[in-house]
Amino acid sequence: MASPNGGDDFEGSLISFEKLDRASPDLWPEQLPGVAEFAASCKNPINNSPPKWMAELESEDIEMLKELGSLTTANLMEKVKGLQNLAYQLGLEESREMTRGKFLNILERPKK
């Protein structure tokens, strides 16, 4: 496939015979952990089994994921703020209960 202007010689000069060992983790570290595994799972579209992380999910969990995935950004932020408020209220309640337990002496270790 020689070109009339001598392009074959130019292409031949660009060929490199250097062998790179891509198996070395030092030379080719994985930039984002888990990406290689994910890419490998995407290459095989025939595999109909669910991913490992979905194997432990129940139907309620999947419904929750679908619901959260359908929310707009504003609605999702509102949901997150609600969860933060709930976590704060639970923390306050736990603090009250721990104080109550301390006053009732139910948290002391038995004396030997």
UniProtKB/TrEMBL annotation:
GO terms for biological process: regulation of DNA-templated transcription. One of its GO terms (cellular component) is DRM complex. Belongs to the lin-52 family. This is Protein lin-52 homolog.
